[in-house]
What we know:
By secondary structure, the chain is an alpha/beta fold.
Amino acid sequence: xxxxxxxxxxxSALYDAxxxxxxxxxxxxxxxxxxxxxxxxxxxxxxxxIGFVTNNASRRAPTVVALLGRVGVKATEDEVVTAAQASAxxxxxxxxxxxxxxxxxxxxxxxxxxxxxxxxxxxxxxxxAAVVQGFAKEVGWEQLAEAAVALRxxxxxxxxxxxxTIPSTRGPLPGNGSxxxxxxxxxxxxxDVIVGKPHPRLHQESVRRxxxxxxxxxxxxxxxxxxxxxxGGADSLxxxxxxxxxxxxxxxxxxxxxxxxxxxxLSGLTEPHPAVPAGWTVTADGSGLVLGGAGSSLxxxxxxxxxxxxxxGADDDAWPGPSAVRADGAAAQEALDSLGL
Length: 341
């Protein structure tokens, strides 16, 4: 994709389903994100099917529904699709019923494994056929050590996701990918399978469960949500309420570029997305960009992203970052300041 797509119709009218990421889109840890509940409600009112899709493997569907309820988002258990569910389903396809699976992660991950007819264990002495690793705050040296023993003995290694960070109100914190990296370093090998976004398994499971024909993936991360949509052949909406900032969007490579971008979920689903953002001009100046004109900061970001992705070398680390963007005029400088560029 060389630029953001435009439409005069709201996205809620163009797609039959919305597959929402959770942390960074609907809440930050357990703090609600403004406009998110109204955005989900608007999608429902427009007739969209709803999926709540998360790489987080520590919470089961009832817990996710309860958390969503606390931040003002109505949800049902059959709308929740987690990397833990998809990982357990994959293991059930590969292993005989009753096989031992070593759990690195929360009890919710163990329960998902048990629900598909496998036997969750916590010790490598149980001779597990596989190790499944998901994020949990309680994961520490003891769980990682048991996994190392099991993996060196030939167990299959399934990681629910490789998110190196998770968003929080205090900034990004270590995620499951950071814990996977501990074992990767110790064992000098990679997981056999990574189930969660951006890998297609979780997206395929979500589409199947929700029954979507034309889904829109909604997320806040380029490397998981948006790349997962690209890998799954789906369009995507990036909301600027979580991990990705303006500089990160301008630096996105072709496999991580969203179809649309919005400040928040409600406006992203209910307002038009201009193909040519009104009021702004962007010109290339050497390897950088010059923003001129006036208008909303979001439209400035749309214009800058399309221009940045068209620069020579935009896919090979040639983008030098926010220092390569400068303003022509006071209005443009104000927009760049508001975007952190």
